[in-house]
């Protein structure tokens, strides 16, 4: 039977790593190895992983010093023995049939290098976002416009992809997933399983006023990171992006949308409006026009709209969750 390697980087989060190991070992496809890279390990993480000492499917590796997400994934790749490689963040979870369904798509599409899946994002048990696959076949240069193959924990690679394009770029301490996807898409086709087989877990910080502040600070970091990733992708692939005017227009639009949200969440309404207007010039979309309105009315209205949006998304998800994702919880 085909061996599948699951790569799990982790950094000082012992409360999540056991769940990651179990969701990988709980697949209906039996031939699984879980390669965990602790960057570096805490004593608590080491104790959790020592409980798997008698299970040769679980292979923990311990960095002596911090290598970052790209360096840790590259180290896991060095030790992976599978014909196929799956990515799994330590706080994400899979439906039991995820790997089996991806392998079936791989078998039917020999030119395909990657099969990814749909998924949902949950916070405190509520669904706050959904990921529906849309890109397939030759997705280059489309992928330059934005990373539309989420969630990344839904990606399965043929191991040969890494031999062809190399590993993760260690110059990227975030956005390494988008960068690798661009390089692989130049050489291989992409396919997907159109089912929500991955759960991303946004950690519930809504239990106190202090937690609400922490949630906003985390949102600021996420938005800053998104803006920074766009800058790094632009620096590395500028010639590729600018040689495709439609791609460049969409890339700039997405970058300015991210910048506008960053400024808006910091209550810099004038700068948010400027970015929103720039985004509108590239693409007068609902998102860019809405941002311009939000910049005028202020972030309190934005918070209310987010709450309504999350409630609607969660209500729709509760209907859909009668299916397989119930087994992920």
From TrEMBL:
**Repeat listed as a keyword:** no
GO molecular function, a single term: hexosyltransferase activity
Family matches, as SUPFAM superfamilies: Nucleotide-diphospho-sugar transferases
All copies of the Glycosyltransferase 2-like domain together span: 5-129
Task: List the Pfam families hit by this protein, alphabetically.
Answer: Glycos_transf_2
Q: Which domain of life is it from?
A: Archaea
Record key words, sorted? Transferase
Q: What is this protein called?
A: Glycosyltransferase, family 2
Q: Which organism is it from?
A: Natronolimnohabitans innermongolicus JCM 12255
Question: Upper lineage ranks?
Answer: Archaea, Methanobacteriati, Methanobacteriota, Stenosarchaea group, Halobacteria
